[in-house]
Amino acid sequence: MTCPREEREAIEELLVGEQGVRARDSRGRQIPETECVERTCFQRDADRITHSKAFRRLKHKTQVFLQPEGDHYRTRLTHTLEVTRLSRTVGRALRLNEDLCEAIALGHDLGHTPFGHAGERALDAIFSQGFRHYEQSLRVVDAIEKDGRGLNLCFETRIGILAHTTGHPDESRESRVVRLCDHVAYLNHDLDDAMRAGIVSEAQVPELIRERLGRSNSRRIDAFIQDIIRNGRAGEIDISPDMRDVWELFHEFMFESVYHNPVAKGEEAKVENILRGIWEHYCARPDKLPEDYRSIAERDGLERAVTDYVSGMTDDYAMYQFGQIFIPMAWSVK
User: Would you say residue 102 lies in a domain?
Assistant: First the structure.
């Protein structure tokens, strides 16, 4: 009698095309494990990521706007969920492995710092080995979660997480889908948030974008997703040549008008001082690190462990740590 996992693997023979990655063909885990009875290996990866501490912290990490006033701005967690849904949609349409798309998308930003890309730039300047969030995301699942034991994810999930920004020679088509959907998600929801914040107006959006993609968030997303699916069915997982000009214009517009906008990013100059102060404090006082990070320091070096600790902080916790370290506490004489 077959188990639910085996039934699902048999179904994948029909649902997942030859260019997709079927679960039973996975290159496996770094540490071999007994297969789950109910779930395929990629479903298991998605569950491990969802239940990780790093994943839960994403809800309190900045996407673009630092300390926004309002309840409807995206966080790193809502961004991750949007990427996940888009990736499953594209993966299904292209007969790829939806579960692998989901696992990669859920884990792709686990290594992001507090304060968004401002925090990433700050840690890159502070840490002698440099800091890139996609490399840190892989480090989170390999060497930080589970008290330093890692999540022991499948090869395909790990490479997809690492490759979501710059690509990798061993990446799958599912990985390329996630990378594109990451761009589609952040371009559109960051524009939506920027409009909500009054940083840009509809009239400032280049006419080519409005004409080719539409004038609403949902229409713009749909236009890109439909293009990726059409192009993927023709063979290449990428934006089509016909859509390339508006894709590049959208990126240029967002970097010029939003990501580098002094109104939106006015507080970022303070980020490096905050993170550097915390980082130098723990480098000078390693005994103050949490126990699991002291273990990482013994294994990988003190600066690496402190970088792991600081990069994993939420925005609020980094502010709390800075206050505890550098701001005198109120006192009174009785």
Answer: yes
Tokens coding 77: 């967690």
Domain of 58, CATH number, reads 1.10.3210.10
Number of domains in the chain: 1
pLDDT, tens digit, 9 for 90 and up, residues 51-103: 999 999 999 998 776 665 566 688 999 999 999 999 999 999 999 999 999 99
Q: Domain range holding 169?
A: 43-259
Q: Using a CB cutoff of 8 Å and minimum separation of 24, what contacts does 21-28 make? A: 21/96, 21/97, 21/100, 21/156, 21/172, 21/173, 21/174, 22/97, 23/97, 23/99, 23/100, 26/154, 26/155, 26/156, 27/154, 27/155, 27/156, 28/154, 28/155
User: Does some domain include residue 236?
Assistant: yes
In terms of Cα–Cα distance, which of 257, 266, 200, 313 is closest to 65? 266
Q: Is position 25 within any domain? A: no
Question: The pTM is what?
Answer: 0.95
